[in-house]
Write a sequence for this structure.
């Protein structure tokens, strides 16, 4: 007998039954798929109350199964679920050459010129143009930024072209205007998202999305590449 599947759930093969034989069990990778569908399936507003019972009935699972699926997703998935969007960091590119910045420092009172020169390598600053791609619901979107590096610290200056870059400027208030300006910017961003087939976001979702982007902008591999470039410049 074929199960009803009005939400087009993925057909998954159970690995068996749980210890009390009241629900199905699934492989970890299939638990992730169930978890993702819980949030990413597009559900008409008038069917929201029917969706979760339908999901549990289709897979013959319960709330505890969904809780376990969430733990597995957090432990092994290479993405995040932000409201009803799946977000994942992609690869990076170094787009330009390392530029040595000439910065002026005020000599501290009581210090000598020689002691300042000994710290010159620590004070040296560099900039370089970079790009990292991000995926929202498997749609690839670039994020360009100029990276400023000095010692162990860094900061970024984001461009203003792609929808992710515009999200940065919306959140950080490039033009701290009134509510109408913010609403227009948010409407423009959602229009750009819609053109990519991505559902609209509210401000809370956008803030969470930008937090994810900034947390994943630099990874160990990119840091190693940048350190190699800096070592060569020194």
């Amino acid at each position: 007998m074929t199960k009803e599947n009005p939400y087009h759930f993925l057909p998954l093969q159970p690995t068996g039954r749980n210890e009390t034989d009241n629900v199905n069990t699934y492989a970890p990778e299939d638990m992730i798929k169930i978890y993702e569908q819980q949030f990413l399936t597009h559900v008409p507003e008038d069917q929201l109350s029917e969706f979760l019972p339908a999901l549990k009935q289709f897979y013959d699972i319960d709330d505890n199964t969904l809780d376990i699926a969430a733990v597995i997703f957090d432990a092994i998935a290479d993405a995040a679920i932000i409201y009803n969007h799946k977000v994942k960091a992609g690869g990076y590119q170094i787009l330009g050459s390392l530029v040595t910045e000439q910065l002026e420092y005020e000599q501290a009172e009581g210090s000598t010129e020689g002691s300042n020169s000994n710290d010159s390598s620590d004070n040296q600053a560099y900039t370089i143009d970079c790009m990292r791609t991000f995926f929202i619901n498997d749609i690839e979107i670039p994020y360009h930024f100029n990276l400023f590096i000095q010692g162990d610290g860094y900061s970024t200056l984001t461009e203003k072209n792609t929808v992710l870059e515009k999200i940065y400027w919306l959140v950080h208030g490039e033009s701290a205007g009134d509510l109408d300006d913010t609403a227009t910017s948010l409407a423009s961003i959602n229009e750009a998202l819609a053109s990519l087939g991505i559902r609209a976001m509210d401000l809370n979702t956008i803030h969470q999305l930008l937090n994810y982007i900034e947390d994943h902008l630099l990874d160990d591999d990119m840091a190693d590449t940048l350190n190699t470039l800096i070592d060569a410049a020194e």
